[in-house]
Amino acid sequence: MKEIFKKAKQNSLYGRRCSRLLKMKGFAIIMLLFVGILYAGSAFSSDNTISKVGGTVMGVAMAAPLAFVVPKELGLSENEEKGLESLAKHLGDQLDQHQKGLLDGPELNEKVKKAFEHFVEDYGINKDTLGKLEKALKDQGLEIKKIKDKGSPSGETFKKQLTDFLGSDSFKSQMKAGKAEGMEIKAAAVITTANATNAPHALSYEVVPGIQESPFEQPVILTTLLKGMTSSRTIIWINRINKEGGAAFIAEGTLKPLMDWEYDEESSTAKKIAVSTKVSTEMLQDFEYMESEIRLLLNRDLYQVLDNKLLNGTGGTTDPAGIITNAGGYIGTGLDGKIFMANNADAIRAAMLQMRLLNYKPNVVFLNPTDSAVMDLTKSTTGNYIKIELEGILRSLRIIETTEIPAGNFLLMDTAKWMVRVYEDFRLEFGWENDDFRKNLVTVIAEMRLHSYQNSIDAGSVIYESFATVKTAIDAPSDAA
Q1: Which of 138, 132, 178 is nearest to 49 (CA)?
Q2: pLDDT tens-digit profile of 267-316?
Q3: Which of 151, 176, 201 is the last residue in one of the domains?
Q4: Cβ atoms < 10 Å from Cβ of 300
Q5: What are the C-alpha distances in Å from 202 to residues 189, 208, 275?
Q6: Same domain, 43 and 167
Q7: In the chain, how many domains are there?
Q8: Angle at 84 between CA 79 and CA 90, to 5 degrees
Q9: Rounded to an integer, what is the distance from CA 415 to the centroid of its chain?
Q10: What's the pTM value of the predicted model, to 2 decimals?
């Protein structure tokens, strides 16, 4: 019941309906039904309370307590009217205290129960009078329920329909006769989510944190080859070259053999890689992800381009020396023409042999994911996978997948012989140019400077070749099998 009062107090449509009806003289008597309901100890759990008073089942709609007026249409005696008015006032006071939270449900029930018992005893209300009261309450309660259960016709408000109904001659004549008349309220048009097309955020929604995007290749070249930092823009090294002569066993008293050599100087100059963007201060202020977006995207773009240039750079004034650009190919080894059913692992192993014969120690091979998968799925002539055997052949190598290497090729390296050293670490700078300040624009620059080089005397420490070329060179003729 407390919840019912709360609904009415909050000026809900339901509360407004019932309040207006109960203000009608004839409907004020509905509140007296609660004497019987509370007397019977019923709990109020919905808008329609079903209880038995004197053996009669009645349904009624509740509203906030109002001033009670006993209708003359019931034909009560002066003494009965006086008693009902006294009871109504007492009931109204108790309901008001309950609504204000001064009385809980059990206390209200007890007080109303005692008041009703005193009312029946003091004013001599007999069974016939109670029956007449119960019938009137039942009829009026059911009519209110009819009104409550109806919808509202499209284009006409419930307020207008109710006003027209209560002011009609039919309703007034029925009330004079101690009866009530039902009001039909037609159903409104169906409301669907299409009604919120122009207000999509009115519907339930969830925003996934962050910004979504397609997957991308992670840079692997720099992290594999990086040798640390340097504080010098230019790195110089001296090579000892063109050795001639050398030690030899000689006879007693003979001339000692001569040995000589030359020196050659080489150098590397740090190369700069940079990217920038321009953004308005409004965008930085209004888009909470923007600053982190700028940092993320500029950083990622710079390192992706750097990885590509470390492989394919042309050298010279601006580009670094590229590994693939400077790499040598497969020349030949003692394995040529001797490997039966040569596969990709055999081709890599032959290239490893070529490098070992030049005194280098290959430790990394870069493969396209497709060629890595081919090796994983290689089978013997009997159909058995031999991945473990192939890995055994290449046990001294670290295999790194990257889409920067075209399918069908491999890059084999002794990474100790290729130098990547950072001169100026990655940094972001924010600033203005020209009239950016007046336009509320900010320029963001991402840049770094680094060395990438190989000593010319270590040219044999890198091999870039196609699998097909090496397999053709090492494959044994079919008649040799």
Answers
A1: 138
A2: 999 999 999 999 999 999 998 889 999 999 999 999 999 999 999 999 88
A3: 176
A4: 15
A5: 20, 18, 41
A6: yes
A7: 2
A8: 130
A9: 41
A10: 0.59
